[in-house]
Amino acid sequence: MVTIGNLQLPDFPLLLAPMEDVSDPPFRILCKEMGADLMYTEFISSDGLIRDIDGCLKKLDIFDYERPIGIQIFGGDDESMSKAAEIAAAANPDLVDINYGCPVKKIACKGAGAGILRDLPKMIKITSEVVKSTRLPVTVKTRLGWDEQSKNVVEVAERLQDVGIMAITIHGRTRSQMYKGSADWALIAKIKENPRMNIPVFGNGDIDSPQKAVEYKNRYGVDGVMIGRACIGNPWFFREAKHYIKTGEILPPPTFEERIEICKRHVAFSVQWKGEMLGLLEMRQHYTNYFRGYEGIKHYRNSLVKTIHLQEVNSLLDEMNLRFSEITL
Q1: Alpha-carbon gap, residue 274 to 255, rounded angstroms
Q2: Which of 26, 152, 227, 274 fits a disulfide with 269 by CB distance 3.0 to 4.6 angstroms?
Q3: What's residue 328's pLDDT?
Q4: Chain centroid, CA 166 distance in Å
Q5: Which domains are delineated in the chain?
Q6: Please, which residues have CB within 8 angstroms of residue 241's CB and are 6 or more apart in sequence?
Q7: C-alpha closest to that of 118 among 98, 145, 142
Q8: What is the pLDDT of residue 329?
Q9: Taking Cα atoms as reference points, which of 60, 8, 12, 49 lies closest to residue 166?
């Protein structure tokens, strides 16, 4: 059993990463059904939350069937982060998570996300104020450091624990790496091996197969893994990983018919939650992965990403099902 404050998770939990325009309610319900043990909302700007810029408050929508779930916030100011944590807590999540890992320039270069890695005292102050502002468990997601010369995450993890966080997730790259190169899990293992650490340590980065999840569990000793890009358009990842962890067996991939069924549900919920145009626009990044590997699928995928009408999407999906349902990968 892995414990985050009063929250209890199974041994070696699988976490759904907070991803902008991906980890929304339409996608989360699918991942939950497939076995995700803990999920997070899309990351939300503290300033945007306070002022409800671009509908940030809507990103606080969570549902009981998603639990346990955390709301992730980011920002570069302790006062706004504290207020944002209070607003997030009012939505009644199971925990509040702080994003100290986003490498995107418009965020990091303003001293938020991974940008805070250049100012450790500021990071500690913000974290301390967020912890004081809520009774919910506070967790952190961060990176190894800003660049190769500042991989200070072992010290960072200790100091964040000292001011009250209840768990930490480490992405095994620096901010300078963005998402390039291989994730380095050796420092993540050092955090877990540190005798001063007594909170759960989760690893993130390059977990793209069930086999790798088990390999990294055994090699690096982490308490669980966070899954990001590998599950986009592939919520089955959680089911496959759970099965492999339990049995050592590799499940066959989902049938084409099952892919169509899940994709249709995803589309329907996306449209219901965001409206037809935005819902279909934000589905575009999922289509490629839903149907990756099928020869002759490109024409249909190109049509799917061009249409902004739900009826046309469903017609295309039905046509695809008739053509490809007998094909197995």
Answers
A1: 28
A2: 26
A3: 67
A4: 18
A5: 2-247 (3.20.20.70), 256-324 (1.10.1200)
A6: 14, 35, 210, 213, 227
A7: 145
A8: 60
A9: 8
Beta carbons of 267 and 261 less than 8 angstroms apart: no
Question: Do residues 65 and 44 touch, judged by C-beta distance below 8 A?
Answer: no
pTM, two decimals, is: 0.94
The rounded distance, in Å, linking the Cα atoms of 86 and 71 is: 11
Residue 49's Cβ-count burial label (10 Å; 0-12, 13-18, 19+) is buried
Task: Write the CB contacts of 62 (distance below 8 Å, at least 6 apart in sequence).
Answer: 25, 41, 69, 71, 91, 92, 93
Which 8-state DSSP code applies to residue 219? H
Q: How far from chain centre, in Å, is Cα 57?
A: 19
What is the mean pLDDT, run by run of 10 residues, along the chain of 329 residues?
Answer: 95 96 94 97 92 84 95 93 96 96 84 89 96 97 90 94 98 90 93 96 96 96 96 95 96 94 96 94 90 89 93 96 78
d(CA 167, CA 17): 14
Q: Rounded to an integer, what distance in angstroms lies between the CA atom of residue 248 and that of residue 27?
A: 27
- Supply the residues annotated as catalytic: 102
